[in-house]
Amino acid sequence: MELKGPTPALAVAPRRALLKPSLGAFLAVRGGNPNPQSRRLYLTWNSHRKMETPRLAPCSCMSTENGSAVTNASSGRVGEVKRVTKETNVHIKLNLDGTGVSECSTGIPFLDHMLDQIASHGLFDVYVKASGDIHIDDHHTNEDVALAIGSTLLQALGDRKGINRFGDFSAPLDEALVHVSLDLSGRPHLSYNLQIPTERVGSYDTQLVEHFFQSLVNTSGMTLHIRQLAGKNSHHIIEATFKAFARALRQATEYDLRRHGSVPSSKGVLSRS
């Protein structure tokens, strides 16, 4: 799976006193006014306007987290982690600036379905290939996939310069409504308040939902609050949670152009220490 990273360098061109050309100049470009002087004025202004658009710098970094061997991303905000233990073998790629492409195979069908929600609603490109001791139960694979996703997120974010940092979203799914609020603060914390009425959805143990998010929080350095506002159907409650999480994470990882690449913290740094 090829991950795209469309993030060129963050730079703002010096401002110049250029006035927006007249409607006549605008029409000249489109053939409505043959005046060559107006056409030159419009093209000069438009070129300068494009130069002033902030462009986002690629970042890549390396870390080793919880037994995960992390490889350097070639470009853009892309993380890649390979985590191998006696219980599981996990390979994750994550592109924060993707288009929602999902290629997930964990051996746990319901977890694959939830990872698809993260990709689709977060507009992340997500590749997950995992094998584990699911003949015992899904616990270790669920945990290690989440740990590795958190590590790829940590890598892809880099120094977190210019991002919004905070995300907040409430997702409805039929009768279910789940609110997720998060902060890419560098401080891992989970507050979890779901009342899932059944012990399983398909073959998936619903206790593993909390464990998934706790594991992801631990390695990514994220503060995450999950609250159920309504819901009776277990599948709906869990899926609404993953959708709300994806949208909140998308908000938090997107760039705030007014920051011009500065760290969104009064301390001047966001880290896990």
UniProtKB/TrEMBL annotation:
Q: Which GO terms describe its molecular function?
A: imidazoleglycerol-phosphate dehydratase activity
Q: What is its EC number?
A: 4.2.1.19
- Could you name the domain of life of the organism this protein comes from? Eukaryota
One of the record's GO cellular component terms: chloroplast
List localization entries. Plastid, Chloroplast
Q: Does the keyword Iron-sulfur apply?
A: no
Key words of the record: Amino-acid biosynthesis, Histidine biosynthesis, Lyase
- Which reaction equation describes what this protein catalyses? D-erythro-1-(imidazol-4-yl)glycerol 3-phosphate = 3-(imidazol-4-yl)-2-oxopropyl phosphate + H2O
**One of the protein's GO biological processes:** L-histidine biosynthetic process
Instruction: Write out the transmembrane intervals.
Output: none
Q: Pathway, per UniProt?
A: Amino-acid biosynthesis; L-histidine biosynthesis; L-histidine from 5-phospho-alpha-D-ribose 1-diphosphate: step 6/9
Pfam families from the xrefs? IGPD (PF00475)
- Which spans of this chain does the record mark as coiled coil? none
Q: Which NCBIfam families match?
A: PRK00951.1-3, PRK00951.2-1, PRK00951.2-4
Family named by the database record = Belongs to the imidazoleglycerol-phosphate dehydratase family.
Q: What is this protein called?
A: Imidazoleglycerol-phosphate dehydratase
Which organism does this sequence originate in?
Aristolochia fimbriata (White veined hardy Dutchman's pipe vine)
User: Taxonomic lineage per UniProt?
Assistant: Eukaryota, Viridiplantae, Streptophyta, Embryophyta, Tracheophyta
